[in-house]
């Protein structure tokens, strides 16, 4: 591919990174935000839940809107909403204001995540699409890896408001890139065709098996994201930077398991690997629940279980999406949008119940939700009779 295409891929990868940056960068600052805004841990944790709800809702609408009115126009509107909301987060003086602007931030940011994938199909030849998506995935993982550390540094030296100032500048620069690099052309799909695809996917029980497998572990990871900073910083005594490095350690686990998945795909089908990785998630979830029930307080026990559970989420996501696209090759955009929307919807539910059950002296709320989510992911592939002979 030409060098100018790599610049475009970098822009598309940055669009996909809106989600990870918006969530992961401010995780180390949650305890400090709780103090500064005179709010409880549960109130601050709800800002994550609200973001996930907004992101999930936005996912369902931006795809068809971009089909009807054009990718670039809808993307510009979405990013503009994100910039406005990020500035609002910076100026928030109460947890209620912050929660409102986080919801708006999610509604705007969802446009980047959805439309960036649609643009790949629009702008690149079919034989280049796998490589383009892989490069975008690498950019997303790098963003996820550095976001908590960067957020921890910003909070430590400049305060948590600096995180949202940086997100405002980042999104403004991406908006400029969209103006300059994204063409106005777009595929014209009719609304009836879009609705027909949705109905076909919803009626197929195999789709729900893969969506639940994907969403279960993703939701478990968000239970970890919601509660882990309070557990490791407030309960165990980690510094914000130590927590950021711990978070990065788990993201490194995702990268390692994803590389292993790529290697094993030479010998095994993605479906068989998906079943194996959901088993790992299920076992890891119940292991974490057990050490919470037994009050094993040493962080090593938690870190090992979290590494295994969080580590396999990337491989599970890749294999679940691959199987969905294999079954619904003529409705790839629809099934991808539905799957990702359910991902974030389940994440929001897991985050909500983690907040609801959270106690400041225990990790039980987090590990209980992770165990349940891991079991759902495991079970979803094993109770569907239509998958009995599926390879």
From TrEMBL:
It is found in: Cell inner membrane; Cell membrane. Its main location: membrane. One of its GO terms (molecular function) is xenobiotic transmembrane transporter activity. Residues 5-386 form the Major facilitator superfamily (MFS) profile domain. InterPro entries: Efflux_drug-R_Bcr/CmlA (IPR004812), MFS (IPR011701), MFS_dom (IPR020846), MFS_trans_sf (IPR036259). GO terms for cellular component: plasma membrane. It is a multi-pass membrane protein. CDD domains: MFS_MdfA_MDR_like. It holds the Pfam family MFS_1. Keywords: Cell inner membrane, Cell membrane, Membrane, Transmembrane, Transmembrane helix, Transport. NCBIfam families: efflux_Bcr_CflA. Belongs to the major facilitator superfamily. Bcr/CmlA family. This is Bcr/CflA family efflux transporter. It comes from Acinetobacter baumannii.
